[in-house]
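Bug #2210: token dump truncated for ATP synthase subunit b?
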Amino acid sequence: MQFDATFFAFVGLVLFFALIIYLKVPGMVAKSLDERADKIRGELAEAKRLREEAQHVLAEYQRKRKEAEAEAASIVAAAEREAAMLTAEAKQKTEEFVARRNALSEQKIKQAETDAINAVRAAAVDLAVAAAETILVKKVDAAVQDDLIKGAVGEVKARLQ
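Reproduced locally. Full output below:
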């Protein structure tokens, strides 16, 4: 019986498989694959936990954002109310100021009219006294002049007061 190369290749293959089984390589490969599968399961569980945590954090931030938006809206509304109130107050104060200024102006105008009337009266009285004095000087003697001037001046003073 002559053995050819195929037989020796077959014997080598059988010895190789026997050596692999003897050294428990399939168990080590299975153990390695199991460890890797467990590691992948752990990573998937960790990824799932992190995803749930991220969703929780996202929901929390969205809630906080909504609260911040609501607070900002209330601040804007309060600012608008305050601005409207300040505008109304400023308008009222302006109207009161204008009314006071108008009243003061009217009062000053009335006082100026009164002063002008009094000045015209005083000028008219002075002019009348001067004219009367001139006429009396020409027509009346000294004693009568003194009596008339004193009487007229007294009468004018009484009327002015």
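Output looks complete on our side. Residues 5-160 form one domain. Marking as cannot-reproduce; reopen if the truncation happens again.
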